[in-house]
Design a protein that fits this description.
Layout: H1 4-15, E1 21-22, E2 33-34, E3 37-38, E4 47-50, E5 57-64, H2 65-68, H3 84-91, E6 97-108, E7 111-122, E8 125-134, E9 137-146, H4 147-162
Antiparallel strand pairs: 1-4, 2-3, 4-5, 5-9, 6-7, 7-8, 8-9
InterPro entries: Mog1/PsbP_a/b/a-sand
GO cellular component, one term: chloroplast
Length: about 170
Amino acid sequence: MLHIEEVLWRWLCDSCAPNFEDITEPEDYNAGLSLYGDKAKPKTYAARFASSDGSEVLSVLVRPSNQLKITFLEAKDIADLGSLKEAARIFVPGGSTLYSARTFKIKEEEGYRNYYFYEFGRDEQHVALVAAVNSGKAIVAGATAPQKKWEDDGVRLRSAAVSLTLL
């Protein structure tokens, strides 16, 4: 079984154009001491790559699913967070224009894993993202660019987001 970091690295290596560079923040080992010992600052992004001008970004977030939707049970599948429409409230910011939303399934050894795809615009940004759940963690892979650049690079960026597969 691959670790999530290995899956993310493979996805980014396969998805990024050669001119994209790693802009992931380094881990903060000096988060400070508390009465309970050292506490590491949680990283905002598990992985983040940007085009040379910084306008196009591929990023991955990993969060415990119970931070997205309060539940006593560990989410095993994205559908545990709600239907495609219900989960849009979690993944699509308010005030956005939703262009597309769909569910797709990928066959695995134990059955099928569900993925939710959303494409939306907010302000002058265009976003495509895919969300899935693995072992109680929600993994969100997204691609974003200014609307003007999306017209030229949208197919490549959308493909990068949709190519995320959890192993």
